[in-house]
Amino acid sequence: MKINDVSKRTGLPISTLRFYERKKLIPDGFVKRDENNYRIYSEEIVEFLEDVKALLSADLSIEELSLLVNQQLNLSYEEKKNIVGQKINQIDDIQKRLEKSKKFLSAVLEGKANFQTKC
Known about the structure:
Elements: H1 3-10, H2 14-22, E1 31-33, E2 39-41, H3 44-57, H4 62-69, H5 77-109
Antiparallel strand pairs: 1-2
């Protein structure tokens, strides 16, 4: 499938797909070239890009993502595992802060919080 089809199926702009390619976020196995040198993407690219979107929404940086998927960097499994583990710890911390905020806001709604104004 061509880049326009990938864009439509993933909801990612063509410019983002090209950016991902420049950053080596799309492994070579997902992209071939036809006789006119146009990129032809495999069907599996859609699921891969959905995973990329999920990782980015989990606040992985482009650099971290590149470390995980760029096979030319030769990171070991343990190094990749450490990156993922650190991100999980960060998400756990965020979840704890959000839960605390949620409890406070619930207390505000119930009139049980010492807050400046009543809701």
